[in-house]
Structures are given as C-alpha cells and as structure tokens.
Amino acid sequence: MASATAFPRSISSYSLVSRESSVGSVKRQDASVVAAAAVRPRGRLMLARPCRALEPTERADSAVHAATAVEASAAAVREEDTVDYEKLGNELEIASPLEIIDRALEMFGDEIAIAFSGAEDVALIEYAKLTGRPFRVFSLDTGRLNPETYRFFDTVEKHYGINIEYMFPDAGEVQTLVRSKGLFSFYEDGHQECCRARKVRPLRRMLKGLRAWITGQRKDQSPGTRANIPVVQVDPVFEGVDGLGSLIKWNPVANVDGKDMWNFLRTMNVPVNTLHSQGYVSIGCEPCTRPVLPGQHEREGRWWWEDAKAKECGLHKGNLKEEGGMPASNGNGVVSSNGVISGIPDIFETNTIFNLSRPGIENLLKLEKREEPWLVVLYAPWCQFCQAMEASYVELAEKLSGSGIKVGKFQADGDQKPFAKEELQLGSFPTILFFPRSMSKPIKYPSEKRDVESLLAFVNALR
Ligand code: SF4
Q1: Under a CB-based contact definition with an 8 Å cutoff, are residues 83 and 181 in contact?
Q2: Given ligand 1 and candidates 139, 140, 142, which is best to mutate, with the most ligand atoms within 8 Å of its CB?
Q3: 383 given a catalytic annotation
Q4: pLDDT single digits (tens) 38-79
Q5: Ligand 1 centre from 190 Cα, in Å?
Q6: Which of 166, 285, 325, 427 is deepest in the core (most CB within 10 A)?
Q7: Which residues pair with 47 in a beta bridge?
Q8: What are the pLDDT digits (tens) for 109-133?
Q9: Helix ranges restricted to H, 67-213
C-alpha cells in the first residue's frame, strides 16, 4: 500500500504554479501539464502534480495519481495552527461538494485521502477528478464484502485510472475472533467487536498516516446519528500523523440529499455498484447489509437486528454522543442517572394502551395462564423507529379495544434494558411481543412491517 512517503520528493521536473484557492473560484488547470502548488494547513509549501490518466496496464507507484511533495519552508510550519475549522465549516456550509473537495485537496495535497466504501460515495471520486487536482482513495477490505463490491472497486480503479489503497484487518486478530466465536458472532453479541477488528483498526492505521480524510457521510443518511455532521471538523475520534486533535475530517456531501447525489451520478455517467439495482441503498459487509423496501430508511438495511442508535460501525463513532450507555439528548433532553433520557416526550400515550411497569411486565411474564392475551411493545421514546410506528400502534390499540386483547407498552431503555434483553427477547427497538392466553413464553413479532394490517394479521394468527 502506498503512503505519503511513497511520493517522490524531487521537484526538479515540475514548475511551481500558485493556484486560485478561494471557494467559489475554483480554477481548473491542465492536469497533464501543470504542477499545482498548495499551502497545507501545516504551513509547509507543497508541490503536487495533478491527476494524469494512467494507461490501462500501468500501476502507479503511488496510491492514486503520482504527486510530488516537498518541504519548502520550515519557517511557515506554524501557519496552519491558526486555522479555525469550526469557522471554516460554517463558511463552507453552503458551498457545493465540488468547492469543498477542491478546498480540502488544495489545503492538504497528498496528505488527505478519500474514504471509499464502494457505494454511492463514488461521487466523491468524481468530484475529486473534476477538481483537476491529484487525490488519493482508500477502502477497507473487511474480507466480508459482497462480490459485487469487489468488482465495483475494480471498475472504479479502471474508470478513474487510480489505484485504491486497500486496508486489510490484522490476520491474527480476525483469526482469534473467528476461531473463538465463529463467523457470525455479530448476530449474537453485536457488530462492534467484528467491526473493530475488520474496519476500525485498519482505518485507524490508515488515518495515522494522514492529516485529513474525506468521507461520504450525509445528514439524511441517519436522522439519529448523522443529523448534525459538519462539512469540516477536527476529527473527534481518530488521530492523524500528529496525534489526537490533529486530523481533519471533511464531509463534503453532508448537506446533499440522497436524491441529488443520485442525480449527479446519473448525469455524470458515473459507474455504480450493481447492488444498488438489487434494492441496496447503504452498502457494507455482505452479512450485515440487506436491501431495503420502498419507504424504509436506508440505514434500516444495516445491522437490522440492533438498536438504531448503534448503527455506526465505529468509523464515524464521533456522531454518537453517548452518556451512560445511552444516546445523548441532542439538545432536547438530559440523560438521568438511570440512563433514561428525560425531556423527551413519551410516546404511545393513549387510554387504549396500558403503560406497564417493571413489576407489571414481570407479572405478565410469570403467568402460565392469562385472563386475556396481551400485545406489548418494548420501546424507547427517543428511538426513531418507535416514533415511526406510534400512529399505527395507537390505531391498532383502538381497533383491538373491546376485543379481549390487551395492548400495552413497556419502556425498555436505560436500566431496564439488560432485563428486557435477557427476559423479553429485546434485540432492537421496537420489539413487539404477544403474550398468548395459555403459554407463558411471549412470541416475538418477527417482521419489520409495522403497519396496522401486518400487526393485526400477527395478532389474529395467535389469538
Ligand atoms: Fe463484521 Fe458485519 Fe462489521 Fe463487516 S459490518 S466488519 S461483517 S460486523
């Protein structure tokens, strides 16, 4: 794998050309002829040779496009310490992705790289190409990607004449995990351990050699975890070459709508992963990604057996603001000592839905024979999927009112979560349980269709 050090250090064959740098006045140059000079935020003057198309059989010595970097002035080293990235992020909030990427590449030259997942973030590569500047691309090969994604990587390399810098997990670490827990342990105890070995640590290694990285995160991908991502920020989680607090994270498409992203890809005739035509929107590892249905949110296709709040693989962990194991209140509430967020209004608030306390549901669980069957939702008021099913659950409760079936709710986050996981089959929120009249063990609703008709069909099949 190439790194910044793989770039030749000589400048003898290139001319120094200063470049327009202001956002909104991107100056295109003939990529095959001119060398661009960029002032990095670290303050050193760097020469970078812009992209050139590679011959189909040619593998670049460097990771992507050949570039030349030189130390030009030690005296200027301190200059970038004055960059205020919060201010810069605010300034760039209304800039186009092209302008943002141009600015990022201009500032960081060969010490920035695009993180490419093999999905619609291929748009980042297209934008980078359009800037006319040299750029690097890396991908995490977890060993568990779909065959379509591997083929797509190859297509992208050929289409753009680039060599993707693949990062691989540590063989010993993966071997230990798989030998001790099997190939699919993430279905049993969550995806974090596997993601840590296959994604997070390789990413950390990659970023340790960079000063900045570019991601394809968008606000609309996950209202729960990505709603507030800035266009540029000091990376809150990972460290760059100069340690923690030194890595800059660029999110040029943060404000782009998914539809606009796809319009751009179509307009520019950009190759896309064939999995998209099979219903996949968000694309990750094969065992942890599935197509979504019309109307479903794209992140519902990832780690669908887990809580919505856990649906970050660790690559963008900074999006999750956790306190006491619970998501933070995103400004609307406070996490209390029992881990429950106060200040967020409760849901399923209607006379036809019984609010079960812990002793109440324990009692329901203990009964061998019940006077009437119960349908109970295990929920968390902050969970977007629980909120999304509120209207249909309330309507269902009204329909079942007087039918002899009781409808209830049990708030299962915070301190109640371990109990709910152990005793009530809680996997992710919401979990819906049917307690039959003559069976002690509740039956878990197996589907993610939470419309009234589907829920009624479930109840009628078991009543
Ligand atoms: Fe492992 Fe799934 Fe994470 Fe891939 S997405 S690293 S298979 S847990």
Answers
A1: no
A2: 142
A3: yes
A4: 333 333 323 333 233 333 334 443 334 434 333 433 333 344
A5: 9
A6: 285
A7: 37
A8: 999 999 999 999 999 999 999 999 9
A9: 85-92, 97-108, 122-131, 147-160, 171-181, 186-189, 192-195, 201-207
406 contact partners, CB below 8 Å, separation of at least 6: 354, 372, 373, 374, 375
pTM over 0.85: no
Give the pLDDT of residue 295: 67
Distance CA 395, CA 279 (A): 30
Q: How far is 411 from 450, CA to CA, in rounded Å?
A: 18
Pair 133, 51: CB distance under 8 Å:
yes
Tell me the pairing of strands 326-327 and 322-323.
antiparallel
Rounded-to-integer distance, Cα 117 and Cα 119, Å: 6
The neighbouring-strand residues paired with 166 are 139
As to burial, measured by CB atoms within 10 angstroms (0-12 exposed, 13-18 middle, 19+ buried), residue 181 is middle
**Alpha-carbon distance values, 302 to 27, 217, 220, 293 (Å):** 40, 15, 15, 13
Ligand 1 centre distance from Cα of residue 23 (Å): 38
From 112, 21, 39, select the one nearest 80 (Cα to Cα).
Answer: 39
Cα R_g (the chain), whole angstroms: 26
Mutation probe of ligand 1 site: the residue of 178, 303, 313 with most atoms within 8 A of C-beta: 313
Instruction: Report DSSP state, residue 158.
Output: H
Distance from the alpha carbon of residue 462 to the mean position of ligand 1, in angstroms? 35
User: Which of 235, 254, 249, 385 lies closest to 310, judged by CA?
Assistant: 385
Length of the chain, in residues: 463
Instruction: Count Cβ neighbours within 10 Å for each residue of 262-279 and write b for 16 or more, e otherwise.
Output: bebbeeeebebbebbeee
CA–CA distance, 32 with 278 (Å, rounded to integer): 38
Q: If you take atom 3 of ligand 1, which residue's CA is the nearest one?
A: 195
Is 313 one of the catalytic residues? no
- pLDDT below 50 — which residues of the chain? 1-80, 321-335, 337
Note whether 407 and 459 are within 8 A (CB).
Answer: no
- Cα(89) to ligand 1 centroid in Å equals 31
Smallest CA separation from ligand 1 atom 7, residue: 285
